[in-house]
Amino acid sequence: MVYGNKIFDANDLVIFKSMIEYWISPVAIKRDYHTGGKLKYCLPSAFYGSVKPSTVVSEVSELPQFGLDVPEFLGMHPSPELVTTGDQYLLTSLNRILDRIPVTSNIVHHPYPSQLPYHTHSIISLVSSRHPHLLEAGFFASSSVAVLQNRKTQDLFEICHTLLQKLPRGYHKDYIIERIEKTGGKTPFNVFILKEMEQLYRAIGEVKRSLNAIKAAVDNIGEIIGDQLSENDIAVASGLINSCIPPLWLKLIGPTSMPGYASLANYMYDVAQRASQLERILAIGKERFPAYWLGGFYNPSALLSILHLDQYRIRNAKGVPFEPLVLKTEFTGRDKDHIRDPPPEGIFVHSVCIWGAAWDKSTLEIIDSPPSKPPITLPVVHLTCVPAVDKVANEDCYACPIYHTRSLRRDPVLFLDVTKDKVSPSMWARRGFIATLKPY
Predict the structure, then answer these.
(1) Which range is least confidently modeled, 51-60, 180-189, 225-234?
(2) Mean local confidence (pLDDT), 63-73
(3) pLDDT band for position 426 (50/70/90)?
(4) Rounded CA gap, 329 and 412, in Å?
(5) How far is CA 94 from its chain centroid?
(6) What's the Cα-to-Cα distance from 412 to each of 138, 301, 415, 434, rounded to whole Å?
(7) Are 132 and 194 in contact (CB under 8 A)?
(8) What's the Cα-to-Cα distance from 393 to each of 161, 281, 388, 399, rounded to whole Å?
(9) What's the rounded Cα separation, in Å, for the pair 403 and 409?
(10) Dihedral (Cα; 282, 288, 293, 297), 10-degree rounding
(11) Residue 251 half-sphere exposure toward CB, CA atoms < 13 A
């Protein structure tokens, strides 16, 4: 909503309401009212007292033509939409658009030869997709083309070999079953971990299968007849040779998958971190696991549901009457590396990223973000379940939605409770202050 013109969810509704209250309200038309921040805008004095049309026209004409054409007009400031590896993606996309614009009297440029389609139909054409114009140039000898193909084939072989070495090995099924039995059997939490491991190992298995298939095809490219790779494997090989994450691999990771312009190294690191968290939970159990990385789960909402369920069971065992429970969040101010044990109640979560705001380590509070800064990683957050009646509605509290990623903003996973003295929650809404489980 902040960067568009449509309302999609409840958070957009909060943002729209804050904009209306900021600009279209009885307070906004008072003589001594002016906007805060860098804008310092107020209505011209000609609108007050004895109003004369000529005076109004004169003062309005003296206003800067683009005085309100700034982010501060709505309480925002510039912030990067693309972070780290996104610059090259943006420039490449703009260049492709420019190359396809017809030359006119005021636009003169030299379009470069278009690349082959992303999905090729042969491993032979695939390894030459970086230089398709060489295959059409008459002055290139066939030996030059063969040398180019051999070099690209060797590059693809080395990429597959390197990625296979970086894939997590995974645990044997018998060991997993044994650890589940030792940590309480098929409890709701253990069933959740089993499902997460099953999905992740299935994804790792598919990645490993496609890499082995491509590696074998490239290694025996001169000994086999025809192309023995499937369409999916050819699409994966096309992505690898162009240093891109194959779209099929992104789908295997689920809703928190990274953007397509991210590097293969980041993808492999993300998969390894997911596997490391699940395997550590399996090894030490829920009772000893210190802090959870929600972005490493396919379905983090299931973990929060288990947190609710455990609290209901504890209250029932104590004979406490049933009443609805809600999540409460508190900032601990501690880094994840300093957490050694789980909290007595609830869970710790880490690596939550915020957009449109920053974290002040000295005051342990959310503050306004400096312009053009990437997302900030919050310290460890403590999640607990409290009765809904105990969590009294606070007018100074901003419910910051936490989404899977910035591109998947429909159903928040949970909400952060953000309060700051002398700061209205509507200010955070106008800033577009949200949180994500991943830094993209």
Answers:
(1) 225-234
(2) 63
(3) confident
(4) 15
(5) 22
(6) 57, 9, 7, 10
(7) no
(8) 56, 35, 9, 10
(9) 6
(10) 30
(11) 6
Greatest mean pLDDT among 131-135, 167-171, 335-339 = 335-339
Token pair of 384 as six digits: 């607990």
Residue 400 belongs to what H/E stretch? strand 397-403
Q: What is the pLDDT of residue 113?
A: 45
Is the pLDDT at 110 greater than 70? The verdict is no
Residue 129's pLDDT is 42
Q: Are 352 and 435 in contact (CB under 8 A)?
A: yes
- Residue type for 185, please? G
Where do runs of H (alpha helix) occur along 36-141? 53-62, 86-99, 123-126, 132-136
As to burial, measured by CB atoms within 10 angstroms (0-12 exposed, 13-18 middle, 19+ buried), residue 417 is middle
Q: Where are the beta strands (DSSP E) in 86-207?
A: none
pLDDT digits (tens, 9 = 90+) for 294-311: 999 999 999 999 999 999
pLDDT tier at 116 (50, 70, 90 boundaries)? very low
Q: DSSP class of residue 24?
A: S
Mean pLDDT, to the nearest integer, of 274-281?
94
Name residue 385's beta-bridge partners.
327
Task: Tell me the three state secondary structure of residue 220.
Answer: coil
- The reported pLDDT for the residue numbered 83 is 45
* Close Cβ partners of 217 (under 8 Å, ≥ 6 residues apart): 123, 224, 227, 228, 229, 233
| Both tokens assigned to 416 | 């952060």
Here the tokens at position 7 are 């309302």
Q: What is the pLDDT of residue 143?
A: 43
CA triplet 291, 294, 300: central angle to 5 degrees?
125
Distance CA 302, CA 194 (A): 12
